[in-house]
Structures are given as C-alpha cells and as structure tokens.
Specification:
This protein is about 45% helix and about 15% strand. By secondary structure, the protein is α/β, with parallel strands linked by helices. It has 3 domains: about 130 residues, Glucose Oxidase, domain 1; about 120 residues, Enzyme I, Chain A, domain 2 (Orthogonal Bundle); about 325 residues, Phosphoenolpyruvate-binding domains (TIM Barrel). It has an 8-stranded mixed beta sheet with strand order 1-8-7-3-4-5-6-2. The chain has an 8-stranded parallel beta sheet with strand order 15-14-13-12-11-10-9-16. Strand 5, helix 8 and strand 6 form a beta-alpha-beta unit. It is globular. About 5% of the residues have low confidence.
Length: about 600
Amino acid sequence: MSIQVFGQPVSRGVAIGRAVLVASSRVDVAHYFIDPDQVEAEVGRLRDARNEVAAELIALKSEVPEEAHAELVALLDVHLMLLHDELLSDATKQWIVERHYNAEWAMSAQLEVIARQFDEMEDDYLRERKADLEQVVERLLKALTRQTAPGGHHAGSGTARDFAGEDPLILVASDIAPADMLQFKRSVFTGFVTDVGGRTSHTAIVARSMDIPAVVGAREASRIVRQDDWIIIDGDAGLLIVNPSPIVLEEYRFRQRQIELERAKLNRLRHTPSVTLDGQAVELLANIELPSDAQAAIEAGAVGVGLFRSEFLFMNRDGELPDENEQFEAYRAAVQAMGGLPVTIRTVDVGADKPLDRMSAHELRHEHTLNPALGLRAIRWSLAEPEMFGEQLRAMLRASAYGKVRILVPMVAHLAEAQQIRLALERAKAQLDAAGQPYAQVELGAMIEVPAAALMMPTLMRHFDFVSIGTNDLIQYTLAIDRADEAVAHLYDPWHPAVLQLIERAIANANEAGRGVSVCGEMAGDPAFTELLLAMGLRSFSMHPAQIASIKQRVLRADVRTLRAQIGAVLAADSPQDACALLMKARAH
C-alpha cells in the first residue's frame, strides 16, 4: 500500500530508488561500503564476532549461581539460539555479499528487518523476544568494534566506497551526523530522508551540495519505510512516497526527465560572465568541504572558493586531529586545483551540530546540559586551543605560497576576539619566518553570523580585510531558533524583517568602508533571494557548486537599478509574508 509522509523540502528535485535504512542503535555503528575484494574478509569479521559472543554467553552460563540457575540459563540459551539463527546470521551475510555493506551496517540493517517482524507477531511471548534479539545484536556490534576492518580501517570509522548495484538507492535515517554525511558524500545515494532536522541542518546543506533531492523532518519516516522499499522523494514539495503505484511512479519518472532537461539548459551558462542587465559584475564563488570538491567548483564556473569548510578535515578520525603538515597538504591541493583563483579557507568551525570525536574537557562536561549552539564553538574553541589554532594558521599560510589564500574566522562577536586572532596570525607568521617556511600575504576576514557582529561592524572592520555573512547562523541567533530542531524549524525564516535589516546593514557598512563583502550562507544559493541581495548592494555570492548555474540565470535577468528603488519598502515590511510579497511585486516591475 502506498504511503505519503510530509517533511521539509531542503534540496530540490526528484529521486526514485530503493530504501537503505540506517537504523538507530544504542551502539555507535559505522556505515560504509567495502570493496568487492574485501567481502570475504568482512564476512570473516562477522563470523569471528559471532564466535566471540557465543564464547561469552557459554562462559556466562557456567558462572550462573545455582539458586538462579534455571531461569538465567534458559535466557542465555535463547540468546545463543538467536545468535545462530539463520534469519540473523545468513541474512546479515547477504547484506555484505550483495550490497557491500560493512559488517556493522549489515547487522543493524538486518536487526531492523527482524525487529519489525517481531512487532507484527500476535503472540505476546514471541513479541517480547525482540528485546532479547536487540541484546544479542548489541553484543555482536560491540565485538565488531573491537576488531580492525579490512583495508586498515578501524571498525568504528569507514569510508564510502563504490557499490555496483542495479537499482538507485535512497538513504533513510532518523538523523545523519555530519561525520556520516561526509562518508556518504562520495557514495551511491541519489537522495536522503531523515526524521529530524531543518532546512539549514547539516544533512540538508550537504544534500544540496551533492545536488540530490532531500526531505528532512519527516518524523516517522525511518519507522514506516522498510529495507528495500521502493520510495520517491519529491524535494520540491517535501514529500516522501513509500511503495508508489505504477501510475505515480511513471509520473515522477517523467518529472525526473524534465528536471534533467532544465539542468542541461542551465549548464550552458557556466562560462557566461555573471553580469546584470544594467552592467553590474557579480562574483559567484563556491562553497567546498574537501579539496576534491574544487574540481566541481571549476566545472560549475565558479570564479573562486568563497568558503572552504576546514572542519571536515577534523572529522571521522577517532579523536586524532590532523597535524600541520596534513592540513597544509589539503589546503595546498585545493589552492592548486583552483588554478590561481582565490580560495577562502575558514578556520575550524566545530561544536553545536558539528561536534568532533575529541572536544575539550569543558565541552565534554557540558554537552548534555548546555545549548551547544551557545557554547564553546567556532572561534571560541580555536582560541581555547591555541596550539591547534596555531597549527591551522601556519598550514593555511604555507598554502598561500601556491596561490591566493584568504583566511576566514567564524562566529566573531567581540573586539577582544578580533585582537586575539590578529595576534595569533602574527605569531604564526613569525614562527614560519623562524623556520624559513615561505608564505604570501593573506587577507583576514570575519564571518558575520552573530547579531552583535552585524551591529558593531564599523569597529570590527578595523581589524579585518573582508567580511562574509553566514546567513544560517545569523538567522538562528537573531530569531533564537535552533536551526537543527524540527520542532521550531517553521519559525526559522530568512524573510523576517529583523534578519533582512541586519543583512542590509552589514552589506552597507562593508561597502562604505571599502571592504569586500560576500554572503556564504544558504541565502546566497537560493534564487528567491538573489534580486534582494543584489538590491542591497551585494556583488559576491558563495554557494554550493550545484547552485551556481541557477543563481547566474537570476543575475543575468536582474536590473539592479530598478530593484534598488524598491528595496526600502521590502525592508520596512512588518512581516516576512509582506517582505516576500513586496519583493515579488518589485521583481514583476
């Protein structure tokens, strides 16, 4: 039977494929694809884990006190029976052989299948055996995490690998951590669905960067969808369709073909200069997360990188941070791949929705009691870790010897922070001078993503060469909305008059001071805001490479002089709805 589930549309388009369910687990489970030549070894890992758990259970049986012997021994016998049941062992092996899942993922996938069968049983006793099954699987998963995976990866961390399946695959999960998104980014999924999250949650942002349809905040999606169900994601309507009828399936396949034709038309613009109808040149830059993303930026026609999110070099490392040389190699690779075009590298922005495996003692003590979005994150964490910060600044400076590098600092809010950042940069330069390491002049920029920074820009700009407006966090902090919380996601509104006024003020302040200003948040890649930002005086947009063509199309059709005359009414609007309506009216003229 076909089922429809509504969530938030966060990445446009249509995806049709089989569901790959990443189930929640009390044990942290790694999800990655293995190479075909690793299948036998991975099955061996599964077999070794099963033997280890069997030995544990047999040992426990021998230690059971006589007074509790019968009941506990019977329970352990049930666990041993479940451990060797073909429905668990053989089917888990099948996920490894046919789908190339790593053993942990295969085990959690099969648990999801069997658990649902238990839930549908009418017999209360049999239905209650689900808890025993979960305990057995938890033991197996723990045993697997103590092993080393094929290819030298620890079982707790893997990489996304190619999978040669016939049907397209769509990932369905309760939530996807940023570190997991990084693993999945180079894999085979044609769409994402999550139960939680908002438009600017990291899952949504990465889905847009991959240019694949996604729906988040779909509530019960991971409970409704079963492994291998045929599903459709309508990324425009925020709709998930489970087990669609043949008629619906054909309708969406037609829509897919239409989208591909439109995308092909847009791609023809990639080498067209980005200039408005009234002759205003507009800089379209790319946001990237890994050095390998630079190629996509070049192919999309970007004239540089406006945001290199360096924190992704720090994730999935089992608590070990990248040293100066490893960072230098990554930054240099991105700089060289851009062939002389500017690369803006943001210092590590961790905390809140992007925690590291290893945070400071302060962060670990308070991660469950304080709001992480207001805690030790971004530049606050960097300044609290001066050795790490120094390594990162030196690596960035060294990369500047190979091309134009700009350094961008996130979440600046205080004059004292600006002064500390300048001192840290000068210290890094002195250390490189002493070591005889070459570097070029770099510009230092601040992200404007805290209302305090937007309001005190004239003061901050005495210490920075340029600014970049991070609209995602600026909206979050202006409206007091946790952008990753789907319960309040409907209140996260970039059209809010306070948000628009802060952005306009920031752009005007930067232009008056003769400082470069760009927008690198999600508003930069949203065609609905292109004319508005142009009318505010913005001439530099940074977005995911996949969004550049559609924004360029808007720029080419815009007349900034006409739009500028209407901007006052939009900014003076009383409500988000009025602001949006007034811009639509101005656009029509």
